[in-house]
Design a protein that fits this description.
Layout: H1 11-18, H2 23-38, E1 43-44, H3 47-53, H4 58-68, E2 73-75, E3 78-80, H5 82-127
InterPro entries: DUF1376
Pfam families: DUF1376
Organism: Falsigemmobacter intermedius
């Protein structure tokens, strides 16, 4: 599972590159991109698995792949998409930076709260001395 919680889609760039695709090919391409995103920016280069991801028969997959393969690079046993890989790395980096900043802020806030509680507790001890009962004889 990907540690990148969001995937940006640059609609203008996407459409400029894919206007020649059919609706079915768009669907297959987007399903592959989204599945790659969730799997760390790559998928196994296994036609049967890719056909299942795209929800088409293996025979239909061959026809679709012939049209959309131009968007992918085969790297050994996996397929990748250059733009998706770049955007995925950027999103993971941003997510990590925000996580680190959040931890810093949370730690500082927690220390501030602990110090405030200690100050209040000390002040309460000073002002709430136990008084001796008033005994009149």
């Amino acid at each position: 599972m990907s540690s990148a919680p969001f995937m940006q889609l640059y609609v203008g760039d996407y459409l400029a590159d894919t206007l020649h695709l059919t609706t079915e090919q768009h669907g297959a391409y987007l399903l592959l991109l989204m599945t790659m995103w969730r799997n760390g920016a790559s998928l196994p280069n296994d036609p049967a698995k890719l056909a299942r991801v795209c929800r088409v028969s293996p025979k239909r997959w061959q026809q679709i792949w012939a049209e959309i393969s131009e968007f992918f690079a085969i790297e050994g046993e996996v397929i990748t998409n250059a733009r998706l890989t770049k955007e995925h790395q950027k999103a993971v980096s941003i997510s990590q930076e925000r996580k680190t900043a959040g931890k810093k802020g949370g730690t500082a806030n927690a220390l501030k709260n602990i110090n405030a509680r200690e100050a209040i507790a000390t002040a309460e001890l000073k002002h709430s001395q136990i008084s001796e009962p008033d005994i009149r004889e």
